[in-house]
Design goal:
422 residues; alpha/beta; binds pyridoxal-5'-phosphate; four-stranded antiparallel β-sheet; 2 domains; Aspartate Aminotransferase, domain 1; Aspartate Aminotransferase, domain 2
């Protein structure tokens, strides 16, 4: 445990840090409060709900479905939402507005973009994927390989990338910007440059960074990216995902899934497929209208956000959390496993138990029972997903106090916390 160079943090210090980062106060007021006496640190899983979201979904159901019915396709912007949401969210990830669309799930978009990259880089066939990446990303690549459309080369971490690229046969390197377990953030610019130096393209999964920290897709030269809509971006449970294609590749190939919504002239009902220009060719079928209505509430909120200021606030929040854990919980058997430098971390802070009978799942459940909503991932990660707008330093103090009480009493060993959780 690093020795603190200053006196331990106090609740007053946390309140002072909130005052120093008041930039988010007006935005925070646009989120609906959760349950009383409950502290939410689960933006890495489902971000907070904009207060406006229920009314928007209700209006879509009532005016859009009950009253206007099929006329809504003409009278409203339902069909434009994938493009409009993409344009609203693009600044958060450092992309041009017309390079991003919102549709389908992260997994489906990962499939589309891996296939797009393989087509753009042909005859190269190799997809480099991390062995420990979020499983869906690995499975998608394995499925593409099994269909005979490419080959998977697994690496044990970004440190192995140069060796994996050395044979000169790699089409695409697919990396998670931020690791879903310990929150390690990779250097997008440097690794993209490394891939490019070997003639490969770079596809980034921004699920654990988009909406949490500032991202510069265009500046990094990244070729493709996907991101979850329902985590820090607050699109709502099961929200559609982001798909980003750098302009240089947008028209390079037909999309992997050639649907009518990605056709150049959807309502011509032409005999043959012709891809829409730009990122829109990756749209496939009818948009998820209700989900997009909920996401629209978040998109409006993000339109008013300054991501650079929120990045600084996120750094302050997560630095504070790490200091509180070091000071109050390390002596009780919990340590921080995420990198210490904010530039090397993503949205959450991961903790690990050091006790011989450690059971992070039980500790996570005990925290949830104490009103601190966190998540866990096998084998040993306890994750505090910190939202740069919705969370406060004062909340961190309270959450760590509850964690400390659970560790001190050993109440996490209660048999009611022994079951499996999702
Ligand atoms: C890093 C990462 N990528 C991809 C996914 C899969 O997202 P979806 O289930 O929405 O396809 C997740 C889900 O949590 C994730 O954490």
């Amino acid at each position: 445990m690093p020795t603190p160079a200053r006196p331990p943090l106090t609740p007053d210090d946390c309140r002072a840090r909130d005052a120093a980062h008041a930039v988010a106060d007006a935005l925070r007021a646009r989120f609906a409060p959760g349950a009383p006496d409950t502290l939410y640190f689960d933006a890495n899983s489902i971000g907070p709900m904009p207060a406006d979201a229920p009314a928007r979904v209700a209006a879509t159901l009532d005016a859009g479905w009950r009253v206007a019915r099929r006329r809504s396709w003409n009278q409203t912007d339902w069909l434009d939402q994938p493009r409009l949401l993409g344009a609203a969210l693009a600044p958060l990830i450092g992309a041009a507005g017309d390079s991003v669309a919102v549709c389908d799930s992260t997994s489906v978009n990962q499939y589309k973009l891996l296939r797009h990259a393989l087509a753009a880089a042909a005859p190269r066939r190799v997809m480099v994927v991390e062995r420990e990446v979020f499983p869906s990303n690995r499975y998608i690549a394995q499925g593409i390989a099994r269909a005979g459309l490419g080959e998977v080369r697994l690496i044990d971490g970004a440190g192995d990338l140069a060796a994996a690229l050395a044979p000169g046969d790699v089409a695409v390197v697919a990396l998670s910007h931020v690791d879903y377990r310990d929150a390690t953030r990779l250097d997008m610019g440097a690794l993209t440059a490394l891939a490019h130096a070997h003639g490969a393209l770079a596809l980034w999964d921004l699920s654990h960074s988009a909406g949490a920290v500032a991202i510069d897709l265009a500046g990094s030269g990244a070729d493709f990216a996907v991101a979850c809509g329902y985590k820090y971006l607050c699109g709502g449970p099961g929200a559609p995902a982001l798909v980003y294609v750098h302009p240089r590749w947008q028209d390079a190939a037909w999309p992997a899934l050639c649907g009518w919504m990605g056709h150049a002239a959807t309502f011509d009902f032409a005999a043959d497929y012709a891809p829409a220009p730009g990122v829109a060719r990756h749209l496939v079928g009818t948009p998820a209208v209700l989900a997009n209505a909920a996401f629209g509430a978040a998109a409006d909120l993000w339109r008013d956000a300054d991501m650079a200021a929120l990045d600084r606030r996120h750094a302050s929040l997560t630095d504070t959390l790490i200091a509180l854990i070091d000071e109050q919980c390390a002596p009780l058997g919990v340590e921080v496993t995420s990198p210490r430098a904010h530039g090397r971390r993503g949205g959450h802070v991961a903790l690990r138990m050091t006790a011989p009978d450690a059971n992070v799942s039980a500790l996570g459940q005990a925290l949830v029972a104490a009103g601190v909503v966190v998540s866990t991932r096998k084998p040993d990660a306890l994750r505090f997903g910190v939202h740069p707008i919705a969370n406060t330093h004062a909340e961190l103090w309270q959450a760590v106090a509850r964690l400390r009480a659970i560790l001190a009493s050993g109440s996490w060993r209660d048999p009611r916390f022994a079951g499996e959780v999702r």
